[in-house]
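Q: What does the assembled structure look like for these inputs?
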Amino acid sequence: MNRRSWLDVFLGTSVGAMLASVFYPVLRYLVPPELPEAPTTRALAAREGDLRPNQGRVFRFGSRAGLLVRLPDGNYRAFDGTCTHLNCTVQYRPDLQQIWCACHNGYYDLGGRNVAGPPPRPLDGWEVHVVNGEVVVTRKA
Amino acid sequence: MGAALLVLLLAAAPTQEPPRPSPTPPSSCLQCHLELGGQAAEPVAGMRDDVHAGKGLSCHDCHGGNAAAGHDGDIDAAHDAAKGWREAPTRLQVPQFCARCHADAEYMKRFNPHTRIDQLGEYRTSVHGRKNAAGDARTAVCIDCHGVHGIRAVADARSSVHPTHLADTCARCHADAGLMDQYGMPTAQYADYKTSVHAQALYGKGDLAAPTCNDCHGSHGAVPPGVGSVANVCGSCHGREASLFRETEQKKGLELDLCIQCMVCHDNHAVKAPTPDMLGVGPRSTCISCHGEGEPEYAAASRMGAGLERLRAGLADARGRLERAEQAGVEVSEDQFALQKAQDHVVEARVLVHSFDEERFQAAVAEGAAVVETGHTAGRRAFRELRERRIGLGISLIVIVAVIAGLVLKVRQIEAD
Amino acid sequence: MSTAPDAPLRRLWGWLDERAGLSALVEMARHKRVPLHRHTLWYYLGGMALFLFSIQVGTGILLLLYYRGSAGEAFESVQFIMAKAPFGWLVRSLHSWSANVLVFVVFAHMFSTFFLKAYRRPRELTWFTGMALLGLMLAFGFSGYLLPWNTLAFFATQVGTEVAGSVPVVGRFALRLLRGGDQVTGGTLTRFYGIHVAVLPALTTVVLGVHLVLVQRHGMSVPPGVEDEGRRTGRAPRTLPFLPNFLLRDAIGWCAALGVLAALAALFPWELGTKADPFAPAPAGIRPEWYFGFMFQTLKMLPGHVLGIEGELLGIVAFTLGALVWLVAPLVDRRPGHRASRAFTVLGWAVLAYIAAFTALMYVKS
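A:
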């Protein structure tokens, strides 16, 4: 009698442990992660307050680099951060209020248009939305 | 009147096609020269593609004479001095001949308000121009580069002075040892240029922003950049490097002109992509071409070379680790993206070499090293995650084995009854 | 036997039984007995396939919560599952590994029933539905393989649908139906997604349901050899009660399978590769998943033309005829010991050898 109930207890607990080890990952999986979705058409570029006016920063959008610029008037603009000349990552120059590529001195204006230097094409512009204190950049997939 | 007719015909041409002269020449120049054939017909054949003809100009606009007369073969009626007939200019006279229009602001603005009219003035400052003024008929004049009766616009990809053809045009003389020896000029420039990274960009990648002969030497005022202006010339594209270089000169009170600036480390025509081993004290280093062992500069170069090498090696190592983690199934694309920043710092450090300021250089290297360190941390985290997975697996396997053991015993128990 | 702690449970059971007739099911299960002989081990394969299929359904539903079925987002969503979703790497790797193990087990189940001649009367319908299930599992594999939208899957799908297109008469139509157009595009992906998560599960539910009902109805088949022995010795075959003996043994197998899958998922996570680029040239060494390997390898090795007929076409026709012959086995092999019966056994070994050899060949060649 003793052995029978001991075995049942053992079997019961180990089955319970097994079920727990199955359901624990499942439950964790169901709880949404910090970023709710893959950044293909939408990426979090910054939080409000990260950038001062007349400041820029490079952010990641999927597999591409993006440039987020906060204009002197406080609005945001976002561009594809890859220079159209030889694919270096561009940066924002607050002193010139232009976008600059350090590799061969290419310049773009705040509309993304290539205005000086070797870049042959403008930078693609992306949409920016400020939602709940987050600066979100979207582009067509 | 023939000219007017020609202009009308040209004006009536469809707008999509580049304007070209009518196939049946109403002007006596064209008609006669075509009929004469052979050498006399050569100018006419080329006119079809000529940019001047495209703008409605014809033979008499440059050579004078009467295009309305001489259809009957009366050469004197056509070549009428009273109508401004000028014979074909000699080679020495060509610059003046072209400049009659091209240096006339009022005339040129009719065709293109932005066009430059200083080509003759520039030419006179050039080596070609000075030799021409001194009576050297072999030196280059307008028609040698631009052609004579089939001149295409510079932007026309078929033009002899289009960036993709310009080097070949210059090389016609400058790579000709027979000609250049008479002036004591080297002829290796063309071959050297073709091996350069600029030529690779221009011909290989089709990057029209890449320099060819005229971008450094000028188009009409062709002069080898003076020893003091090499940095300025290179700096017209490589602005950061040039301005850092200038700062060095000012800060250290150096007379870097003696070392012909950029050319010391980088060639002038055979410019190759710079390699990391150009910095430091290794066999391929350019620093040691001036600085000897024992000098403080030598030691600085050694430290800088070592710093850059450490950074590059660290970056490669971090990249490799993340790649291995990726192969093992940990997703690390975000960390790999962050490592890109380290590559930017490597580029920054390499640019800062031109400041010859060890402190600034090492600061950039240190920034890069910090990013590389985060990459290493990410790699360690990734492998830790792998270990955690294996531990998790181990635990669940133990549990599963326990369940299996329990089941086996249970089956035995049931069947023992 | 009712003790105080059991009472609420018993009342619940009674309430459900009155309405759903559960006790009848339990009675039927109690009566089910499994024959015990030297080939009993093969009986476990069917339950194993069912278990693995349930894992597929479970992990598949979990994947559905994060996966996106469009060309612009599919790859990134799988990347997200692998990197960002907690234990996403586990869910996805389990799904991929279990799929492969499932196909293997289903093939093994089919071959074991074939060699043990379990398809004999009255179990012909079980055999037909079983073959249909095999086809459905292969369709699941083919459609699911494309869903991560990576380079290998893209080109493997291209090759696979191309082969479908070479079937005579209906090939062109079938190709356009599968691809959602003339080429493999994002439209193909969406179509395969719908097929994988809706069409095939619906079909499988029906066919599997029929299959299981038939298995319960006829009980487990006893192989001819064992039957003969029983007749000779005059002894009735030994049996094992399904509940709880056989089921507990099933459970042992299932736990073992779970352990193996967990180990595979954790130690050899399923790779993601690079995102598909429809405009890039096909990389060298494109091949389908292993379970299509023998067909792929055969078609590759056939000469371009045989007696004026295109080699590939001949291959497809041969496969179709072969499948038909295999399918009608129960209608031809009616009497054990008969010449036809022995011929089918030999055929079975030949087919098994052929599949094993050509699958191995595909890997050796690449």
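Chain A touches chain C at residues 18, 25-26, 28-31, 33-35, 37-41, 62, 141 (CB under 8 Å).
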